[in-house]
Amino acid sequence: xxxxxxxxxxxxxxxxxxxxxxxxxxxxxxxxxxxxxxxxxxxxxxxxxxxxxxxxxxxxxxxxxxxxxxxxxxxxxxxxxxxxxxxxxxxxxxxxxxxxxxxxxxxxxxxxxxxxxxxxxxxxxxxxxxxxxxxxxxxxxxxxxxxxxxxxxxxxxxxxxxxxxxxxxxxxxxxxxxxxxxxxxxxxxxxxxxxxxxxxxxxxxxxxxxxxxxxxxxxxxxxxxxxxxxxxxxxxxxxxxxxxxxxxxxxxxxxxxxxxxxxxxxxxxxxxxxxxxxxxxxxxxxxxxxxxxxxxxxxxxxxxxxxxxxxxxxxxxxxxxxxxxxxxxxxxxxxxxxxxxxxxxxxxxxxxxxxxxxxxxxxxxxxxxxxxxxxxxxxxxxx
Length: 383
Hints:
InterPro entries: Acetyltransf_17, Acetyltransferase_Eis, Acyl_CoA_acyltransferase, Eis_dom, GNAT_dom, SCP2_sterol-bd_dom_sf. This protein has 383 residues and is α+β, with helices and mostly antiparallel strands.
């Protein structure tokens, strides 16, 4: 057995493996989209001779991370034929993928897990709390004063959506964790959701689908509060046509607040996980400063380059070799999953302490807390 990058000439085998491992085969536009992304992405495979037995795709993507443009790997289409689902092959594929992302300068890895516990063992942790909602149209928030409801309505087929793309990337710069959508990504959305409709205002847009008597929100994007209210009012104007509104948001979003006083069905989930690929480079990228030395011992079962003791001092970080970290004044010990979740804003210090996810001196914990951002990192894309 061999774990390695899949060559372009071998990528035709990925379609057969994907169709076997997932519930529905891809056809037409979805199949073309899948083949395209296998060609432009790094793909890691398990090979039994010339036969592909397992795979993982690393999509090359970019996001706004606390005001900086961050490259990350979106993990998708992870699968093994049943006869290879023992012997730790998937773990080996994941290790190879992390090595590849590090080589490519991708600081983070983000995925939608089939099992939170499995990926947590591999070093990924929850990125944010997802709220799925279903609201009776009659209860959906609307504002008494109809504001400027001047908008354009169209779909993917009959108009250039360049204004939508421009609004979206402006919104990315205001929302931590949002992903920059390239032309390739918009084509992917079109192939997966070809019936999407758009309502576009000067400073925001709505992308939605109609399914029977349900109004499905895919994108709810605004640059100012007036446009946000216009989007709510636009949806409410459909109350004669639809019974319910469905969508996904985060527990920290303004929409979650708007829905709190309505008769809404809301379910909390965790369908996005993230992992730091290279601790030293990631912390350097953040430019997060502390005012005195802090020693952080990171345990990472998969990445030897992270399984080290790091010394942070003001705006510098370096790997150090000391016998006992506890001999230092300010120190903490965390695993890579906890480090990832905290420095991305999901875990706060009180939560880490209550779950026994961090050990350290009191001064060390106080310094580490300065590395934890106030804002969570929120992403609604699917890989």
